[in-house]
């Protein structure tokens, strides 16, 4: 079966398409700092959205995988005037809707809605920045959770691998 054409509405975010791998750092006032590995895959089926899956794992001091960390999946929809909507779900009982904009190869997203199951940890807001820098995908994530305001939580640099 032939690969479908990328929907024209996706042009502002088409640079995300493919598989990305790399490493980053994380921390929060309630946890110790840590190093993690990550893989992200952005796909499409010809419709006006990207599919998104991210997996992370804890790395030891030598860069070896220790155990799985977070995973999330969702959809990225490009809107007119370089606006963007992102819907993400987490197996920890959290669903987020982000809104934002794309400026060249920089994406700035902020939560519009956060919904949690009764067993999910308290989480109230997030902000995500993504940018293509020298061919690599750089991102940073701030979150408001467990009584803290938006605070830096994670960032990474990923290389395109497919």
Q: How would you explain this protein's 3D organization?
A:
The protein is mainly beta. The chain has strands spanning 18-28, 31-43, 50-59, 65-79, 83-90, 94-103, 106-116, 123-133, 136-145, 151-160. It has a 10-stranded antiparallel β-barrel. A hairpin with a 3-residue loop joins strand 5 (83-90) and strand 6.
Features:
162 residues, mainly beta, ten-stranded antiparallel beta barrel, 67% strand
Report a brief summary of the structure:
This protein has strands spanning 18-28, 31-43, 50-59, 65-79, 83-90, 94-103, 106-116, 123-133, 136-145, 151-160.
Please report which band the strand proportion falls in: under 5%, 5-15%, 15-25%, 25-35%, 35-45% or over 45%: over 45%
Distance separating the two termini: 19 Å
Secondary-structure-based class equals mainly beta
- 3D shape: globular
